[in-house]
Amino acid sequence: MTSQEIFQALKDTLVEQFELDPASITLASRLNEDLDLDSIDAVDMIIKVQELTGSKVTPEDFKQVRTVGDVVGVVERLSTAGSAAQG
Amino acid sequence: MAHRVVVTGFGGLTALGHDWPTIAANLRAGRTGVRHMDAWDDIASMNTRLGAPVAPYELPAHYTRKRTRSMGPVAIMSTRATELALINAGLLDDPILTDGRTGIAHGACAGSADAVFAFGQLGATRDLHGITSNTYVRMMSHTGAVNISLFFGITGRIIPTSSACTSASQAIGYAAESIAAGKQTVMIAGGAEELSFGTTAVFDRLFATSTRNAEPDLTPRPFDRDRDGLVAGEGAVTLILEDLDHARARGATIHAEVAGFGTNSDGAHITQPSADNMAAVMRLALADAGLDASAIGYVSAHGTATELGDVAEAQATHEVFGPRMPISSMKGGFGHSLGACGALEAWLAIQMMREGRFAPTLNLDHVDPACAELDYIVGSERALDVEYVMSNNFAFGGINTSLIFRRWHA
Asked: Chain B contacts of A53, Cβ < 8 Å?
């Protein structure tokens, strides 16, 4: 997946799971301050991300994400690592 | 006039031993109960592989099939811990257990894992296969309380306090209030937890578990800058609480007085702690005991080694007591025994007060600068001569408890 595709998939997930307005979601959106997602919501978002990528998000990854762009970055890295491992 | 309440018995099955001399020796040697759980190697998507299982124990012959058929491991441990506590109190064969004057306050996060899994399968298979007459009794959260009642013939009130990590501290508090109000003369008070990848998964999903899987000797690390989460533990601890007049009349050995209890709730967030309400609950306990903060000589911290919890607790403790307060968490070596920890930590705090030697927080090498200034006991035990200790616990859902025990001078 390209980072644009990952962003779109994540955006769809956020809209569906957390009833967010698609227009409010950009790469710069802060999960907590802008989108009103707290730590519990963040866990459920990460579980979705794991399903999207088929890879395991580490506690360190989880604790470091602050924005939608950060999440896209984690997914991108996990997808790459996953392909490399399969390849 | 409220009745005074004293502690006349302790009993427990823990990761570091089943009697105080063994536990004390293990604490002094800096031993840990934390292990790599090889049996969890196949659990997919779980980050941690660490647990602190109860040390091996044997059941006496009178734990027969019929008397234990309604018990899973958590109820077995609860019952055996209670039996040890009743023996310690000299009440095991006392008629007061069965005449309605003795009650039970007891809790755990849940009943036994295998029973929960059996019911869980029902949802997928739509088939009652695997569910027996006793599966529910083993699964239900008050399985410990009712199995204790059946085993010893207790006929007084039962207060189930299954509130996750405050199960046992609430049990002690509500038990003390039952005696203080004159509703019961003796209360069996405690909690238990069965180690399972099921309960561990609860915290793993929240990224709250330690993942130092190759270093079980170095984790969890309460209040340490390098802490990375909690390790789930196992055990059962019961305290026997008794009306002071009754204890005196029968010449019982009194270990401590329950001087104060406070409990409140955050009403705000399911997992994020509130330092303000933690401080408030400590003040509630002080008010209940009629004490100034300066009277407390040691605080047994909840200290689970999670990022947010430790910081909030340190801040709250600092706010109430200032930087001078000696404090340690027992979870470095026992792990987080969840439903049992409130009674375990009360037991240890009272014994340490009686002996004047307080154990350090295991694995606390460098206090996290984000944790407020306190007199963290590190490295080796501390000699302290104190009249009152406070033991604090905090649970999922924003439940806070604070207990104060007074040293007993015979």
From this structure: none
State mean pLDDT over B263-275.
91
Q: Is the pLDDT of residue A63 over 90?
A: no
Q: What is the dihedral of CA B103, B391, B201, B41, to 10 degrees?
A: -110
* Cβ pair B207:A40 closer than 8 A: no
3-class DSSP assignment, residue B337: coil
Q: How many residues does chain B have?
A: 410
* Its pTM surpasses 0.90: yes
ipTM exceeding the 0.85 mark: no
Name, in order, each residue with C-beta under 8 angstroms of B362's C-beta and a sequence gap of 6 or more: B30, B32, B332, B333
Q: How far apart, in Å, do the first and last CA atoms of chain B sit?
A: 23
Asked if A39's CB is within 8 angstroms of B271's CB, the reply is yes
**Which phi and psi (to 5°) does residue A79 adopt?**
-65, -45
Residue that the structure tokens 């206090």 belong to:
B367
- pLDDT at position B222 is 98
At A74 the pLDDT is 87
Find residue B241's DSSP bridge partners. Answer: B7, B187
Asked if the model's pLDDT at residue B233 lies above 50, the reply is yes
Which distant-in-sequence residues (6+ apart) come within 8 Å of B6 by Cβ?
A: B241, B242, B243, B244, B247, B254, B255, B256, B257, B258, B408
pLDDT tens, B22-36?
999 999 999 999 999
Alpha-carbon Rg for chain B, nearest whole angstrom, is 20
Angle between helices A3-18 and A39-53 (to 10 degrees): 130
Closest chain B residue to A60, measured at CA: B207
List the beta bridge partners of residue B204: none
Count interface pairs A-B at CB distance under 8 A: 27
Among A39-48, B286-295, B326-335, the least confident range: A39-48
CB atoms within 10 A of CB B383: 8
